[in-house]
Amino acid sequence: MVDDDRYCVDILTQISAINASLKQVGFRLLEDHTHHCVADAIKEGDGQEAIGELLQVFERFAK
Predict the structure, then answer these.
(1) What's a Pfam family this protein contains (predicted)?
(2) Tens digit of pLDDT for each residue in 2-50?
């Protein structure tokens, strides 16, 4: 779009849509990770480490 000299607002709108899509994919991955990896770690007795890692991911993802 930039190479085609498109209107700046159109480019910014597309960037916003891409960011929203990536955030949605991220939330789905985070949900899957929580339900599987973190839950399994808790069942196996490694819950503290898994929860700590999950909180770090939330912190990075929230930025």
Answers:
(1) Trns_repr_metal
(2) 678 889 999 999 999 999 999 999 999 999 999 999 999 999 998 999 9
Domain that holds residue 26: 8-62
Q: Is residue 54 part of a domain?
A: yes
Q: How far apart, in whole angstroms, are the C-alpha atoms of residue 59 and residue 63? A: 7
Question: Is residue 36 within 8 Å of 45, Cβ to Cβ?
Answer: no
CB distance 11 to 2 below 8 Å = yes
User: What tokens does 6 get?
Assistant: 């498109």
In this structure, is the dihedral angle defined by the CA atoms of residues 5, 10, 13 and 17, taken in order, positive or negative? negative
